Amino acid sequence: MDSIVSVFAGISQARGIHSAAALAWLVYDYALSFEEEVDLIWSSEDTVPKLLYFISRYFGLVVQCTTCANLPGLFCRAGLIWTFISLYILAFCVEFSLMLRVYALYARSRSIFVILSTAFAAETVWVVVLSSIGYADMLRVVTPYPAGWQMKGCFYSSTPVWFRDTWLPLAGFETFLFALMAIKVYSYRPFGEVPILLRVLRDVAFLLCTVAANMSNPFLGVTTTVCVCFPHH
């Protein structure tokens, strides 16, 4: 029993440390950009993108604070439901905001509108259906920690193996949006004269290099490193 308690205590402590670190970084970013936000966003016209910005920015802070404070108990029923709802709200706001930017970049093209709407609808259905099934399975087996334990929370036997696939449509759709933006920006001027795009691509390359270094498949890891990291540097 002591070993089981120590394992769950370690999980709880690690989650608390990670949540506190993420919150500290988020607050630090807010402090750095708050003055520009007041000048550029607060005084601007009330629009849908402005609403999406405030929801994603400040609701995200609320979500991180509740996670750090462990208000919806660790892995408990209310916590799982809150996680599902809050994460989807944030993902929706961010992606819808990006869609509006891409739509504007392509001069409000009807074909782009149809493509984006179809892709977003397909992604939403995939995420909601798989998440609902996965969370329903987990909610059925959620078990609270024994009353005598000094920490509060819950546990469940296991997460469905396929549950991680709920993030694939999110990653795929956002990659698609990035590709559309990159193509449009690239078409405006010589590639070497787009410093913002170059910096974004540089960060993507660094991310791929980091992922490659931790791949369990040696072939994919080496291939990614050689094709992306070496040319980039």
TrEMBL record:
Name of a matching Pfam family: DUF6533
Coiled-coil region(s): none
UniProt keyword Lipoprotein, yes or no: no
Membrane-spanning ranges: 80-100, 112-136, 167-186
Domain DUF6533: from-to ranges: 20-62
UniProt keyword annotation of Transmembrane helix present: yes
Keywords, comma-separated and alphabetical: Membrane, Transmembrane, Transmembrane helix
Name of the protein this chain belongs to: DUF6533 domain-containing protein
Organism of provenance: Rhodofomes roseus
